[in-house]
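Retro notes
What went well: the complex prediction finally ran end to end.
Inputs used:
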Amino acid sequence: MAERHELSQPRPLPNPGWGPLAALPGNPLMWVLILSEMVVFAAFFGLFAWLRAGEREVFDASQQLLDPVAGGINTMVLLTSGLFAALAVQSIGRGDRRRCRQWLGAAFALGVVFCVVKVVEYADKLGQGLMPETNTFFTFYYLLTGFHFAHVLFGLGLIALVAWRISHDNVETAAAFWHMVDLIWILLYPILYLLR
Amino acid sequence: MRAMQDAFRDAATRRLLITWAVLMGLTLVTMLSAQLGGDARLAALPLWSAGLLLATTFFKVHRVLMVYLGLADASPAWRGAFVGLVLATLALVASGYMMARF
């Protein structure tokens, strides 16, 4: 009977006292950031799709100049880095700071790999004379990937910071930011590199 | 390697690893459905292929939200809000794609 009573109890809120945000796991303010970033990128993607409808030939011809395999590899790199960040959260949850630092280090290293691939891609495009002002597609290419790249750099700084000042809340917050970076790239990659 | 072996022992961690494997597999499906090989890359995607591309993208984002970010533990209203936003984003992209095509 006691067991049944226990089962019928509602689950405690992860963040009591946070009003409508109380039901969200982790740091509620990070969710506000995630939501706002998703809305901003959604607006960019919508605008990209709208403009593509008017200049389909230009967009399709420009997309041929991108390297979808490099983009796919970078997707896998970020997904694996996200896994390592999630494992870091689990380790700190168990109180294993050493293991947590190892996972954060692995997540950081893959973040650097992502940046290297992206810089090589940028160098290749700029070397071919493909600038942001070349056409509307490349304006969006540099804007969207550049904005995302800035988030990756910020995320790397955040991971380094929490590996130094390690605590459960810090690691959880940095990992949430890193997953958001991951999530945006998952949306960005097919829209920019693949859909034609 | 040792860290990975330890991780497998725990059910929650196993869930993360399975999710990661699914996400990697779906990334390959995304790349394959975009028909990156040979002359096919020069042509517009068949509709089924574009649909599969957007569907796998949605599923990947959904998994990252629910498992990596832990949204599965949030209230149904929040889950609905985030999933709705992702669906609206992809619907915008899909409608732009259809406008360009027809």
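What we learned: Helices of chain B lie at 2-9, 11-33, 47-68, 76-101.
What to try next: split runs per interface for comparison.
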